[in-house]
Amino acid sequence: MAGNIIEKLRNNNIIRKTIRPVYFFYIDILTGLRIRMDIRKLKRLPKLQKRIYLLGIPTAANMGDMTQYLLILEWLRKNYPDYDVVDFPSRSILYKNCRFLDILEKKLKPEDYIFFQSGYDTHDLGGEEDIMHKAVIPRFPRQKMIMMPQTVFFRSKERERQSSEAYSKNRGMLFLARDQVSYQKAQEMFPDLNVVLYPDIVTTLIGKYHFKSERKGVLFCHRADGEKFYSKEELEALKTRLRRKTVVDSADTTISAPNMFVRRDVRKYLHKMLLQFSRYQVIITDRYHGTIFSLIAGTPVIVIKTTDHKVTTGLDWFAGIYDEYIYLAENLKDAETKACQWLEQMPQGKIRPYFEKKYYAHLKEFIEEN
Questions:
Q1: Full-prediction pTM beyond 0.70?
Q2: Does residue 98 surpass a pLDDT of 80?
Q3: Which domains can be identified in the chain, with CATH numbers?
């Protein structure tokens, strides 16, 4: 009932236009409070404690990013039990009046680490992460730094040059690239850095969940931003054709819950999303984490193209491991044909863990060696 009322309010243009300025004013106030809290947290850190600084944590309720954040925190605390782990978003680091980097410079010790949040953060498509990287890395050229698995993509040659120059200031940094195209680009941009191909940490959850949900229909998990390849009309036409055969629903890995609530209990929101994914026979997605969440939920997934390489090249990690459960569609007609096949007969093979044992169980050792 409440959900229906909220949906009607969202669809009412007059109400939306009235509420929108109030909403953004409220968000600005909360953002300012969060930045001041972050600065206070940084100032109060005891100097003698060995510390890991995780920078660039997500500030939007995107479950892919949030799950990365959760798993990186857990991995750091498990593998560095004698270190205090603290985290900060990019906007707090970059806020002009807070002097974050000046304060951080006074706190850092030679044995401290700086880790950067994983994701699509080394690019020039918007957002603050690459700008934050360019502010932090040259400032501390001798500090131990690890860039968790990144997608790398630049449209502007000038922005690419700026990032190449800034990142290369810390020649001891370990840069993890999460797909082959990003790996090749990072090697080209950062010839003096140790660049390594490494999978997204969310892959470590594949094979760890076992749902017993009753399955029916197709779930579309698709984006609505500039990375989408197919138009809304094209996707709606595909949904209409599939509705003649089965139930068709839509979702996204970005959810409507406030970011601060999600970050307080990522596990709860993650489990809710995985449970949703486990209730379908087929998932069609253009989200990279939509693909990974499908595998975690044990649901066969059809991947459709985006405007860049992130999703399609990210599938290389699963080749020869989960082939039975992943299909890369050449076009929407191809996606429809495969969906109909899976609606008739889902794959029966078991999805087993792989990436935890193969990669993340050895990452600390690899960091120390490199």
A1: yes
A2: no
A3: 20-201+358-369 (3.40.50), 207-344 (3.40.50.2000)
